[in-house]
Amino acid sequence: MKGIAHLAILSFSLSCFSQVTVSEKFVMDNDVRETSGLMVFNNKIITHNDSGDDPKLYELNAGTGAIERVITISNASHIDWEDITMDDDYIYIGDIGNNNGNRTNLKIYKIDKDDFTNSETVSAEIINFSYEDQTDFTSLPNANNFDAEALTIFDDSLLIFTKNWQDFQTKVYQIPKNSGTHFAKRISSGNVQGLITGASISSENPNLFFLSGYTTSLVPFLIIIPDNRAPGPDIFNNGFTKVSLENELEEGNQVEGIFSYALNKLYISREKFEGNLNGNTIERDPKLYEITEQFSSLLHTTSAQKLEIKINNPVRNEIRIHSNLTIEKVELFSILGKQVSLEFDRNKIMVNHLKKGLYILSVHFENDHRLTRKIIIH
């Protein structure tokens, strides 16, 4: 992870005020017991198995989980499907699983949304790719850094997040969305200290990323990559937030798919799991969970018109805000999420009574515009 020390502190500490809650939505049908990717389209939940199945997508009732349609991709093979994502016109299925690190047939299937909606058998365009920095294809089962289970959209590209078995980091690769054969370009990396299994952009903010993952003892976690980072493709350049779900889901939960479907709302799926963990026999049914999180609000700027703003940072005695919109409310939070009392006078906030450190400033403007920034008080 790149960045100076105070940014690293933020990445660790924000989880203290994340206000993440998890609730079970339903037990998933046994036909999707190896649910691996997750998406919401036409008010239905779309998922697929990772391996051992035909090339199928399953359309589930969002309320009950009942399978309502099965869509077959006629020109696809089902080797190791690991994630699914979409843009305005297409659905993308990532056949990107690579447990042994020796695959030379990695690909992404691209399906027209109209075809998907109107037919139960569709044909896909094919995006073939290889990693630009992989030169060794020796088989290393669960011991390589070229496995991947997470795929999402970013601008006009696809992003793949690797599941590194050797160093428990994740590398980010970028490939075009058009069919053909491509090299996946490495653009970023993050020391997530775990195994990444799914990715989604926020439904409200295309620059805010959510990743699912678990530790080697199958304790699930979330990774949140904020939107207030430096421009460019290195999306980890301003750190990240890691939120453990151990209290909510305990160990032995092989979480896989993740999808942001509304403001502050995520779905996350869990595979069926049967095995021995720390001397205990564990059996877990495949399930869909709903997560309520606060990052989409705290790390999000909403704007129906161009917002022009200047904020001094770092600060000593006062925070000065200059904007082209009328400021209606200002909130300041400590790094632990406690709201700090403050006096707001026009475009000025006195902070000389506060301790030095990192704070989060939330500015509310007219017409429901909002902006959040990290503030350093010296």
**Helix content bin:** under 10%
Q: Kindly report the average pLDDT value.
A: 87
Extract low-pLDDT stretches.
Answer: 1-18
Strand content: over 45%
Any idea how many domains? 2
CATH architecture of the largest domain: 5 Propeller
Question: Cα distance, first to last residue?
Answer: 24 Å
DSSP summary, beta strand count: 30
Query: Which shape, going by the Cα principal axes?
Result: globular
Strand arrangement in the largest pleated sheet: 6-7-8-10-14-13-12-11
CATH topology of the largest domain: Tachylectin-2, Chain A
Main β-sheet: number of strands, strand sense, barrel status? 8 strands, mixed
Q: What structural class is derived from the secondary structure elements? A: mainly beta
Total DSSP helices: 4
Radius of gyration: 22 Å
CATH class assignment of the largest domain: Mainly Beta
Describe the structure in your own words.
The protein is mainly beta. The chain folds into 2 domains: 5-298, Tachylectin-2, Chain A (5 Propeller); 309-377, Immunoglobulin-like. Helix content is 6%, strand content 48%. It has helices at residues 5-13, 113-118, 246-249, 295-298; strands spanning 21-27, 35-41, 44-49, 56-61, 67-73, 83-86, 90-95, 107-112, 121-122, 125-131, 148-154, 157-162, 170-176, 180-190, 195-201, 209-214, 220-225, 241-244, 255-262, 265-270, 273-277, 280-284, 287-292, 309-311, 318-323, 327-334, 343-345, 348-350, 357-365, 370-377. The chain has an 8-stranded mixed β-sheet with strand order 6-7-8-10-14-13-12-11. The protein has a 5-stranded mixed β-sheet with strand order 2-3-4-5-9, with no helix packed on it. A hairpin with a 2-residue loop joins strand 19 and strand 20. The two termini are 24 Å apart. 39% of the residues are buried.
